[in-house]
């Protein structure tokens, strides 16, 4: 067993404070661990010091495909009989001036929803739809590592954007599940299904180069990856490769988990590179909007070189639109070396080196 102190900061909100003052139904030990997480509060951020305790995991033989790992759980809970968790913490993690609200939330699982970094869970919102039928589940990428934010394998975290839009009739419409989740208070129940998903599972090779491409809440799986790589100690996994995160958001006030990632970079400068693309505040030399692919283009040559290695793995998560932008860069790089990107990508996908979950 090993222990490591992980430090993270999120914008301070009343819900975070409320979560501390009104602990949900949970064991005494969890309450004290929970309280111990809330350490320093200054300015408009609250620093969370999480004592992450990891357990010795049985050393597994590396299989050909990480997707066939027999220890991987899927669909343990189905919509008809979901796991009922409770909200432990729910906090807005973007500034008040950010376009839209994104929340980080932690739910209890009692260890009954065993998940891996990169998987998703379903949430069944309460109530019925316009046809009087129970609402269908919505999928959310898990934003925590397998041990969870408290390190006890008994919680799961999400990163959720509140969907609000104006329809053709000029009416403001609120997305059912995202609003339910963003409004959840500590102690309230949430119906969870899953876990599901194999596309975004991490490579097992601790020396892998892992390139993570995220827009907005697409950051969720990568927070899990990065906690495993840099905030935790595992007897069977000591990351010593290169992790490179590109994160695209609209404004600097919407840079998700920035303090956590900057801490990792400070602690592991040789193993972690971090690049932001802030679309509404930054532009490239041509004056074009700084999208994630625009930022990547600055490192096109280096990225292309990394892609030639057998142990480089690319993961993409977030807005569907980013996929085409990234393909466009790769197409020109591949062409230059005499490859057709579509074919090249097919090979990478076969080797599980190119992994995409966009929506
Ligand atoms: C694998 C996967 C992982 C996901 N992970 C996350 C995650 O980590 N975080 C996250 O926040 N979301 C994530 N999502 C999206 C999530 O599942 C929901 O779709 C999202 O929260 C909206 O659900 P809702 O119930 O609030 O909206 P709903 O009530 O279902 O409304 C959505 C519908 O509203 C309509 N609509 C939406 N925007 C507009 C618009 N601008 N104009 C007109 N109509 C519109 C569309 O018909 C859309 O289908 C993920 C999706 C998938 C498939
Ligand atoms: N596993 C999954 O499939 C998964 C997981 C999590 C989230 N998601 C989805 O990911 C999306 C994230 O949305 P969000 O609201 O959280 O993000 P957001 O905060 O709005 O940030 C998205 C960023 O991407 C930029 N962008 C817009 N069009 C782009 C394009 N064509 N190419 C590259 N960048 C582009 C936006 O720029 P501008 O706004 O300035 O144009 C903005 O900077 C949601 O649709 C969510 O459902 C999917």
From TrEMBL:
Keyword line: FAD, Flavoprotein, NADP, Oxidoreductase
Essential cofactor(s): FAD
Tagged with keyword Lyase: no
Protein name: Ferredoxin--NADP reductase, chloroplastic
Family from the record: Belongs to the ferredoxin--NADP reductase type 1 family.
InterPro entries per the UniProt record, alphabetical: FAD-bd_FR_type, Flavoprot_Pyr_Nucl_cyt_Rdtase, FNR, FNR_nucleotide-bd, FNR_plant_Cyanobacteria, OxRdtase_FAD/NAD-bd, Riboflavin_synthase-like_b-brl
Pfam families: NAD_binding_1
Biological source species: Sphagnum troendelagicum
Enzymatic reactions: 2 reduced [2Fe-2S]-[ferredoxin] + NADP(+) + H(+) = 2 oxidized [2Fe-2S]-[ferredoxin] + NADPH
EC top class, as a word: oxidoreductase
Compartments it resides in: Plastid, Chloroplast
Keyword presence, NADP: yes
E.C. number: 1.18.1.2
